[in-house]
What does this fold into?
Amino acid sequence: MQNLNDRDIRQRDIIPPDKLAHYRATVIGVGSIGRNVASQLASIGIDSLHLVDPDVVAVENLACQGFDQDDLGRAKVEVTADFCHRINPCMEVLTEENRFRRSGAFGNAIFCCVDSIKTRRFVWENAGEHAEIFLDGRMTAETIRIVTVSDAHGRDHYPRTLFAPDRAYRGNCTNKSTIFAANIAAGLMVSNFSKFLRRLPIEPDFCMNLLSNEFLVS
It folds into this structure.
């Protein structure tokens, strides 16, 4: 059997293992974005991962969320945990097949990948405010928004992004998400996490429209 001690040797200057070891990640929502966040965290070598989602895999999840047809009917957290364990067998994974609740063993790095502003507000007020870093990934069709809270400025800005639910864009059920947009969103979130580990500047609010190639940073 090959020695796996050097599995991260090509990324150590980008993702310092001594800094990464300090963090336990909680991914809330393991659908389109969250499943990809979880697999990327497993790949970079996170030691402890906590997955929260009440749903099971349905047919409409296959194309846009990357699940396999053999996963149909299984809990999304269990499928995602199994996949992450195959990537990084030494990682500890805790799964919760429930909606996010106030009480829980949340990590100090929280990745919020839910699909409603109401839920985001609930997560923020009950866990996000206490995390060392809080990352919120949002996606509609080919538009991505990543909001990151890692300092006082971010903590002041984030609540202003939690607009009233009736202001949310309501697209057709056939243009809500794609696997390629989800992968990009997840990559941006994990990239910001890697910048945080190195204490590099992070843009607190980043929007990208893949269709029009438009970017907005605030």
